[in-house]
Structures are given as C-alpha cells and as structure tokens.
C-alpha cells in the first residue's frame, strides 16, 4: 500500500504535506454534517432554478399580452436561457473545478436571482397596463359616451381606423421595447444556472463514496422535480391577480381572467422566485472548498479529486480532445442516438412550452386553470413515469438492446395515443365579422368577413379595436360599436349595452362585456383531454431512464464524459433554442384577429382559428416524432451489429486468454519437471559419492 502511494504521489506532484489523517471522531462527524449541509443547499438550489424556469413557461400568455408581442418572440425569450447557458458552459466546466466550487455556485445563484429581478423590472418602468378598449379611442369621448357615435363607417381612415386622439405618453416612449429586459434577464438566468449542475454534482462525486454519491445525486434530482410543480402553481396563483393590483380600483376593470386581454400579476411571481433563488445562495458561501474523503483531507492547493483512498483523478485536460471528439462523432450508434434525441427534444420542448397556451385557446380555460393543471397533473405524471422506468429497468434486468427496445416501445405507444388528440376538438368561438358573417350567424366560416354591415352602418366604429361584447343572441361582437349599441349602463364588469341593432332577438337588443362562453362542448371534451394527456405523459416518460442508460452504455467508458457533455451541448443548441421560436411562429400563423398596441402597430393575438391551431400544434409535434422513429430503424440495425461485434471480440479475447493461460501452465509444468530432474540428478551424484 505504501509503495503504491509512494509511486502515485510523485506522479501527480502531490506531497505528503498536503494530506493529513483524520482520527478525531468529532472532526469526522463535523465533516459528515458539512456534506449533508451541501446536499441540502444543492437540493434547494435545484428547486429554486426549476421553480423559476417553470414559472417562466407559465407566464407566456401574460408576457405576450403585457408587451403586445407575438408568440415567436416569446419563443426567442424562452430560448435565451439556453443561449446564456451556452455562453459560459465551457469556461465554467474548465475553470470551475480549479476554483472554490461552492462559492462559484453561490455566485451563479446570485446571478440567477438578479436575472429574475430584471425580468420583473419592466413592470415598474412602463407604468399601468391599459388594455384595449373601444370607448377610450373615440374623439371627444366622455365617461358615459355612446358606443355607437354619430357618424358613418365611411368616415374611417384608410384601413378601417378612426381619426383617434394620440395615446398619451407615446411621444416620450423609448424605441427600445420593454421585452428586451425580459430577454436579458433570462440570459442572465441561464449564465447563473450554468455552474449549479456540473460543479454541484462533481463536488458530491469527489468527496463521497461511490455508493453514497448515487444516493445523493438521486435525492437532488428528486427535489428538482418538485420545483416545476410549485412553479406552475405559483403561475396559477399570479395569473388570477390583476397586473396592477393595489394601484387600480378593481370595480372599474371591465375584463375577467377569461378575457384575451387579461394580464395577471406576472411580475409578482418573478419577485418571489428571485428571493427564493437568492436565499439558496447563502449556504454555499460558508462551505469549504474541499472535504475529507475516507480518512484523508486535502488542502486547498491540491488539484486532485478523490473517489476512494488510493484512487486519484487528475483534472488535467486531454491533449487529444479533437481526435477523441472525432472518434466519438464517428461512432454510428452514438450519432444516431444523438439525432433521435435532438428531434424528439424539439418535439417535447415545443409541446411543453405552448401546452398551457393550447389549453387556454383551444378549450377556453383561463391561464390560471391551465397552469394549475400543468403543475398538479402533468408534471407529477412525468416524474412518476421516469421513476417507474428506472425501477422496471432494474426489475427486468434489461441489457443495452432491451433498454433501447423499451424506450422505443413506450415512445411508440405514447405516439399512437397522441393521435387521439386530433379528435378532441372544440368549436371555434362565434364572433361576428371574424368566424361568422353578420348575415349568417348559424355557420362558422373562416373566410374573410366584413365587420361593417347594414346594422352598424350609422356608427362611427374602428375595425381594429378588440373590445368584445356578448349579445343576447349568443354571438360575440368585436366591439359594442360594431354590435350597433347606442346606450350603456353600469360600470366595470357589470356594464350592459342596450339598443344594439346587430343583436336584435325577439325585441331584446342588449349585450354584456366579454366574449360569450360557448363552453358546453369544450367542458365535455376537456376531462378526456386531461386523462389522455396524463396517460401519454406517463407512458412516454417511462422510456426516459432506459433511453439515458442507452446513451451511457453504447460507448466506451473512456468516452462517456465527453459523450454526455456533447449530448447536452447539442440538445440545448439544436432543440432548446430553436424549438420555442418556430413553434411560436407556426402558432402565430393561425391567428384570426390581432390586437393593437397602445401607440399603434400589431400587438398580441386575440383569437385563433382553433382548428388550424390544433392541426399545426399537434401536427408539428407528431411529425417530428415520426421522423425520429424512422431514424430509429437504422439505429437498431447498427446497435445489433455493434453488440454482435462486441460479443465476437469478447469470445476471441476469452479464447486468446485461455490459450495464453494454457501455455503458461505448460511452461510451469516444464519448469517443475526440469526442476525435478535436476533434483534427481543431484541425488544420484550424492549417492555415487
């Protein structure tokens, strides 16, 4: 043992002065408590970053409406987190291990917290939220102005707009859009998140035994699953609260959380997430740079990582990095696996990012309810599926081919079940001039319909406003003016418009604020959608753990670290960044009615063609998975060839080893035989003498 250590220490330029033996039980107990403190701190950091990340996805529609931006820009903001991560991941991975890792993680948590606060900053800069309404846009309007002003639609400017009074504050408004702050804050979140996982996991791996390391990493990953649940629940809570709560009288607000113009207190959740992330940084400032391991304590000057006594790992970089990378990318099974996972992650990330929005738009649920369901139903199903997949793999004792078949089978079953989502449709909202013709209100049509007709020809209306009212005939009108309403009574949500010439049902010409519900068919279909969503999420997640084990086992052990790192880099670059952008752009193409910004220009979408939305969203998701399945076919062929080749090599090696051992035995017998002969000859000589 001493001789082996005496050989190893000079090799790694480590002197005995840097090691001291721990024999004090109290000191050993203290170090055990320090390890547990680091484990708790890292788990809390994982929880904080998962919470803020899922909360970002829960606020997609809130950000769209608040900043009047389309979905593809929201995709850019969402993908900016990965951009920030990729900017510093190489730097952190190389230099982070040489520095004080707990403090580097603490700095990362502080940066994440600052980034989260920056995301909330625009709320305190741009002032109160003024939602789109037709009443405030009419020239010389008063508080109780008639929705249908005296005039004619012929008096409109080109493009169907009123000669409006310019919105106050537009002259001094900065040309820099406020959503840029959200993007920059999310980039900073990505930069801050970078050291948490690689440095945290490596710290655990370096200063614990192999048996405990697996347990500790499992605990951290389990806690990180809880984060998204609380993130979506926080998003659900904040979506119920009006954005300017405490600064406006809620009695004067005419919109509800179900309205397409409603914006919740999105900023409040970011402040809460920022505080939680900041708190997670505190314990890391008090943790040591290194910990003793199995009886040894290394000083700060050592650059070694210890797994067990006498087992040393050098942090020196490999000089043959590019040849090794070339070897890795030349591995056919690994390259095929990489292509399949990139395509499937494109499908998964795009689907998850816009799933709450899909529930809102297609099934006419509020943002609060959509986020609540994601947090309470979908996320736990995914977590349970991943855990069950690992358990089944252990129970069934699956080899590499068995793991590949299991992952493929669960993904294929989930794919087949997902096809039933196409049948779960809701009828589009009946909006006169958008999905219905004023002359034919019984049949939904997506042809271009005029909003001006005989019943509102005497009104001075704008075609660009979105201030929907629900007529007594069950039809939604774009604005009270376009419904031909001449009088109004009440205030806030209780406002009632009367003498609406376009409504006219049995002498009742009234309309109320907001869109007509029309949720009967959706309410019947929605529970089936939720049930199928949970089942498919669980089944697809079953293959997550076996699929990951396939990645680890299909390559040589010496290439494992590089393979995992390159896999993470490739999936974040080619899936995490682009998927939300092009999914958002395709969703934007299904918009029927765009809102208007306060100072002019197109804002967020107010109503979608739900049929086109469903086909585009589900079609793109399943098309990507179809491509991945096609690539899996040659992948299985290559994997079977590799396993067959490895089996043949193992047999040949065993035979070669067997022949070598037989030759050694023969030599040993020959030596013994010669020794016996020499002994006999010596005895004969002695006898003769």
TrEMBL record:
Keyword Metal-binding attributed: no
SUPFAM superfamilies: Kazal-type serine protease inhibitors, MFS general substrate transporter
The keyword Glycoprotein belongs to this UniProt entry's keyword annotation: yes
Keywords assigned: Cell membrane, Disulfide bond, Glycoprotein, Ion transport, Lipid transport, Membrane, Transmembrane, Transmembrane helix, Transport
Protein topology in the membrane: Multi-pass membrane protein
One Gene Ontology term of the molecular function aspect: sodium-independent organic anion transmembrane transporter activity
GO cellular component, one term: basolateral plasma membrane
Subcellular location per the Swiss-Prot or TrEMBL entry: Cell membrane
Residue stretches making up the Major facilitator superfamily (MFS) profile domain: 38-644
Swiss-Prot/TrEMBL GO biological process terms: lipid transport; monoatomic ion transport; sodium-independent organic anion transport
Ranges that cross the membrane: 36-52, 72-97, 104-126, 213-243, 264-287, 333-352, 372-392, 404-424, 525-551, 563-587, 615-639
Chemical reaction(s) catalysed: L-thyroxine sulfate(out) = L-thyroxine sulfate(in); L-thyroxine(out) = L-thyroxine(in); 3,3',5'-triiodo-L-thyronine(out) = 3,3',5'-triiodo-L-thyronine(in)
Residue intervals of the Kazal-like domain: 449-504
Superkingdom: Eukaryota
Similarity section: Belongs to the organo anion transporter (TC 2.A.60) family.
NCBIfam families: oat
Stated name of the protein: Solute carrier organic anion transporter family member
Originating species: Scophthalmus maximus (Turbot)
Encoding gene per record: LOC118298917
């Amino acid at each position: 043992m001493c001789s082996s250590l005496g050989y190893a220490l000079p090799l790694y330029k480590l002197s005995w002065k840097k090691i001291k033996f721990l024999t004090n039980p109290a000191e050993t107990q203290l170090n055990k408590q320090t390890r547990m403190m680091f484990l708790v701190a890292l788990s809390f950091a994982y929880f904080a970053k998962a919470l803020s990340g899922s909360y970002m996805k829960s606020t997609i529609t809130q950000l769209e409406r608040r900043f009047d931006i389309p979905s593809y820009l929201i995709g850019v903001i969402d993908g900016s987190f990965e951009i920030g991560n990729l900017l510093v991941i190489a730097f952190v991975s190389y230099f982070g291990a040489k520095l004080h890792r707990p403090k580097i993680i603490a700095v990362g948590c502080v940066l994440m917290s600052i980034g989260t606060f920056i995301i909330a900053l625009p709320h305190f800069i741009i002032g109160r939220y003024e939602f789109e309404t037709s009443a405030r846009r009419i020239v010389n309007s008063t508080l109780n102005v008639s929705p249908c002003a005296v005039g004619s639609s012929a008096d409109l400017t080109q493009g169907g707009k009123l000669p409006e009074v310019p919105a106050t504050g537009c002259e001094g408004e900065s040309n820099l859009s406020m959503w840029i702050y959200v993007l920059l804050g999310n980039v900073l979140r990505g930069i801050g998140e970078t050291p948490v996982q690689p440095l945290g996991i490596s710290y655990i791996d370096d200063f614990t035994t192999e048996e405990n390391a697996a347990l500790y990493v499992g605990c951290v990953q389990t806690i990180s699953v809880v984060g998204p649940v609380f993130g979506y629940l926080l998003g659900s809570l904040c979506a119920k609260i009006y954005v300017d709560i405490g600064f406006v009288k809620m009695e004067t607000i005419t919109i509800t959380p179900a309205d397409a113009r409603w914006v919740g207190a999105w900023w409040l959740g970011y402040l809460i997430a920022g505080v939680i992330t900041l708190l997670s940084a505190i314990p890391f400032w008090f943790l040591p740079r290194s910990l003793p391991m199995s009886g040894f304590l290394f000083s700060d000057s050592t650059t070694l990582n210890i797994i067990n006594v006498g087992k040393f790992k050098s942090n020196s970089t490999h000089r043959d990095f590019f040849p090794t990378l070339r070897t890795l990318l030349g591995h056919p099974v690994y390259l095929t696996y990489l292509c399949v996972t990139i395509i499937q992650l494109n499908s998964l990330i795009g689907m998850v990012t816009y799933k709450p929005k899909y529930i809102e738009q297609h099934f006419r649920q509020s943002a609060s309810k959509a986020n609540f369901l994601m947090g309470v139903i979908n996320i736990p199903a995914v977590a349970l599926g991943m855990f069950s997949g690992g358990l089944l793999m252990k129970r069934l004792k699956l080899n590499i081919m068995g793991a590949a078949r299991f992952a493929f089978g669960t993904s294929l079953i989930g794919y087949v079940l997902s096809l039933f989502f196409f049948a779960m449709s809701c009828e589009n909202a009946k909006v006169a001039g958008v999905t219905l013709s004023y002359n034919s209100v019984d049949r939904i049509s997506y042809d271009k319909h005029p909003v001006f007709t005989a019943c509102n020809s005497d009104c001075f209306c704008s075609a660009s406003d979105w201030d929907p009212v629900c007529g007594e005939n069950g039809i939604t009108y774009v604005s009270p003016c376009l419904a031909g309403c001449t009088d109004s009574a009440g205030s806030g949500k209780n406002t009632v418009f009367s003498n609406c010439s376009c409504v006219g049902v049995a002498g009742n010409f009234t309309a109320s604020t907001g869109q007509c519900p029309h949720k009967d068919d959706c309410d019947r279909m929605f529970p089936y959608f939720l049930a199928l969503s949970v089942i498919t999420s669980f089944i697809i997640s079953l293959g997550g753990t076996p699929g990951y084990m396939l990645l680890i086992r299909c390559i040589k052990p010496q290439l494992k670290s590089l393979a995992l790192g390159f896999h993470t880099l490739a999936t974040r670059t080619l899936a995490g960044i682009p998927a939300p952008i092009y999914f958002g752009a395709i969703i934007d193409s299904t918009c029927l009615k765009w809102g208007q910004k306060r100072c002019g220009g197109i804002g967020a979408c107010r109503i979608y063609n739900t049929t086109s939305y469903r086909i585009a969203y589900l079609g793109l998701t399943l098309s990507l998975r179809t491509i991945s399945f096609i690539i899996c076919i040659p992948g299985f062929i290559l994997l079977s060839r590799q396993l067959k080749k490895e089996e043949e090599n193992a047999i040949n090696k065993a035979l070669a080893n067997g022949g070598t051992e037989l030759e050694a035995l023969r030599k040993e017998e020959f030596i013994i035989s010669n020794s016996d002969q020499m002994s006999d000859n010596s005895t004969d000589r002695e006898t003769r003498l």
